[in-house]
Write a structure and sequence with these properties.
Layout lengths: L7 E4 L8 E4 L4 H23 L7 H17 L8 H33 L6 H16 L2 H12 L3 H25 L3 H9 L4 H38 L5 H10 L4 H31 L1
Antiparallel strand pairs: 1-2
């Protein structure tokens, strides 16, 4: 059957002549996707079979990993710092995430207005969108390392790097929220003589405030996870740095498990707060 030929239904020539057989046409896109997935699966299996395991068999490695997980989550124990000191380190990580999110949200709010196509000229909107696409294309950890060249490894480079990537993320989210506003409302305000700032503060922001808060909190959750990683990778401090020390220097799986439970607990608390905020905004 030729490519693109529509689905044909042929009568069954068996004893039951009323039964129909559906013949699906050849789909080039589905064929390419299927072959790509097949090649990736084959390469993954080849990688597992030919990887240098340094004398450790695959099954033995899996069993050792499960045993490490058992030690981490069934026997958590703090040895290099107390429970209160652990809470303090978590607050440092939350502070890094909150600071980068707030700065990024303020900057993104104004640039998002100029990136929305219904509030500015197409040329300015396209320039900003191309710029933030470049920012988002580079992972946060690379931005932190780039800024670390000038600021040095530490919390300053981590905050600047996370803020930079947050701006690229939030400008896209905010501008798309602004573009969802009914065009008739904006035209009505223009017709009544309202200027650009009056349109923004009387129609655009009030209409999209729930989306703005929802996107901002989502970015805060992302930055919390990134701040944990930056504590280890960039020496930003917080609970991530303690995890790095426990796993790389002390080799204490009990403490790694305890720190992991710290992070999981606060991540669950943040999710609960986010869900309640969304419900409150939706109810209003």
């Amino acid at each position: 059957m030729a490519f693109g030929e529509p689905t044909s239904i042929e009568p069954n020539r068996g004893p039951n002549k009323s039964k129909l057989t559906i013949v699906k046409p050849f789909n080039k896109a589905s064929f390419i996707i299927g072959m790509t997935l097949l090649v990736l699966v084959a390469l993954t299996i080849y990688g597992f079979l030919t990887f240098d395991y340094k004398g450790v068999s695959l099954i033995e490695g899996v069993l050792l990993t499960l045993d490490n997980f058992k030690t981490m989550f069934t026997e958590p124990r703090l040895s290099s710092f107390t429970f209160t000191e652990g809470l303090y380190q978590v607050t440092i990580t939350i502070g890094l995430a909150m600071l980068s999110t707030l700065i990024g949200a303020v900057v993104s709010l104004f640039l998002g207005l100029f990136a929305a196509q219904n509030l500015t000229s197409p040329r300015i909107s396209n320039i900003i969108k191309v710029f933030i696409s470049f920012i988002r294309a580079i992972p946060t950890v690379l931005w932190v390392l780039i800024f670390a060249v000038a600021a040095g490894l530490g919390s300053v480079a981590a905050v600047i790097g996370m803020t930079f990537h947050s701006v690229g993320y939030l400008i896209k989210a905010y501008s798309e929220s602004f573009e969802e506003i009914d065009e008739g409302v904006i035209e009505a305000l223009k017709g009544s003589g309202a200027n650009w700032w009056q349109i923004v503060f009387q129609a655009v922001i009030p209409s999209s405030i729930t989306y703005l808060i929802s996107w901002t909190f989502l970015r805060f959750e992302i930055n919390f996870g990134v701040a944990v990683a930056m504590g280890a990778a960039a020496g930003a401090g917080g609970i991530g740095f303690d995890m790095f020390m426990a796993s790389s220097f002390y080799l204490d799986l009990h403490e790694v498990g305890a720190i992991t439970l710290y992070i999981l607990t606060f991540a669950v608390l943040l999710e609960i707060v986010a869900v309640r905020i969304k419900r409150h905004l939706q109810s209003n």
